[in-house]
Design brief:
The protein contains one helix and five strands; from the N terminus they run βββββα. It is an alpha+beta fold and 80 residues long. β2 and β3 form a beta hairpin.
Length: 80
Amino acid sequence: MTRATLDRIEGDVAVLVVEGRQQTRPLIDLPEGVREGDVLDLDTLLVDREATEALRAQVREARERAKQGKKKPPSGDFDL
């Protein structure tokens, strides 16, 4: 099974990432309601919900790791 991640939607074109390379498909060919970050099975063109949630969890964890040890930005007014 070949999988792709929906990277972005540009008008009526879907930009997919397949094995590290970008590929475009007409958005109309994909399931209704598909959104950026969804993982698709390219054989059936259906969203793989399990793989999508696993990918989103990995992204959340990576964001949390990136935030660790960083100070919050100052709040309020400031001059540049």
